[in-house]
């Protein structure tokens, strides 16, 4: 008899570990650029934090997946937590002393991103061993809800602490990482790959996840269209809304309302997902999300009101989050256990690589054609994506769950949960994500210690 998630001790520990780490990371994600702005007065240097983080993530995401498949995953997570704790503690001490070199800030941003690239795939690999396949959808939805809640609360708390003293948000993150380390150390389940063949960072190993995804037409089509195309277009859509409803920068109320609605929609989707069992209806949800986004772009093109834009963006984000949770659940159960890290990091890489360009495209369209045409043209891109996922033959046939031939996850004596699940039962998705949070990629890893750059995505999947 399958143990309910509420009775799964190791899952509860993973959930708590991620809560502490993500909440601390969200507090410092706001405080770090504010710190640079306070110390240097340069918006360019403050913006460099996000650039360094995104660049480091993209460079190390695929190697991080290889590491997650080569090293026992719980041990790897503990090493990442301790590494992050050391980095954040050093930054806290520097801020408290009143001397913060820009090089140290950039180093901390890069280190957090690199550690997160390793930690995220390890989390999903360990969760595959902790959670049975038929509970994967509920588990990833709970991880997603946790991450979205932290994203709503974390920046507010971080901003308040920064106002008291600039070192406090980073001290709070260090405390969160310490608690996260303790939770991971208490997890009993072990998860490791069956075989360790070939050089660690060979071309074959680095591309193994991409090769697996490309070999399954359904995964390939959904990731290219729903992950890349929709992620890019929705990023442009939300940036256009943020700019258009902020009255050219004279007021942030309208744009801020839209972004708040986006976050609320993501949280609502994560909370609703367990009731819907999205893995059983993942294709329907993906198609519906695409067409709702097309409709949202059309509505915003003709009704220039922040309230309307916020409501339709929240609806898009809610559906997209549910669809992404369904997709990640399916991705996890169709992937062989020894490849989970590489496949998850490859899916995140595909979606993350277009994130920086969505807002840039939205800004260019807004400058060249004005708000109405920017929304309309973005809607056309969304429409092409919707047509492909609706009518493409490769998007109609979902792959079958992978069946493990033999147990691969040893457990400490005396434990009653966390055995390697048979993946023949279809789960009823996340990361992230994380990714944070991308359609087609699943959850934002979110349980990791990385300091993720902020941004609006059509889905919550990596963090």
What attributes characterize this protein structure?
single chain, 463 residues, mainly alpha, two-stranded parallel ribbon, 15 helices, 70% helix, 1% strand
What is the structural class?
Answer: mainly alpha
Biggest sheet descriptor: 2 strands, parallel
Task: Name the helicity range.
Answer: 55-70%
The largest sheet has its strands arranged as: 1-2
| Overall spatial form | globular
Bin the strand percentage: under 5%
What distance separates the N and C termini? 32 Å
Task: Kindly describe this structure.
A two-stranded parallel sheet has the order 1-2. The longest helix is centred in the first third of the chain and has 32 residues. It is globular, with a radius of gyration of 21 Å. The chain is mainly α and 463 residues long. The protein is built from 15 helices and two strands. The two termini are 32 Å apart. Helix 1 packs antiparallel against helix 2, helix 9 packs across helix 14 and helix 10 runs parallel beside helix 12.
Set down the secondary structure blueprint:
Blueprint lengths: L8 H32 L2 H28 L2 H25 L4 H29 L5 H29 L3 H19 L16 H4 L1 H8 L1 H28 L8 H24 L5 H21 L3 H29 L5 H13 L4 H13 L1 H21 L39 E3 L9 E2 L19
Parallel strand pairs: 1-2
Helix pairs in contact: 1-2, 1-4, 1-5, 1-6, 2-4, 2-13, 3-4, 3-6, 4-13, 5-10, 5-12, 8-13, 9-10, 9-11, 9-13, 9-14, 9-15, 10-12, 11-12, 11-15, 14-15
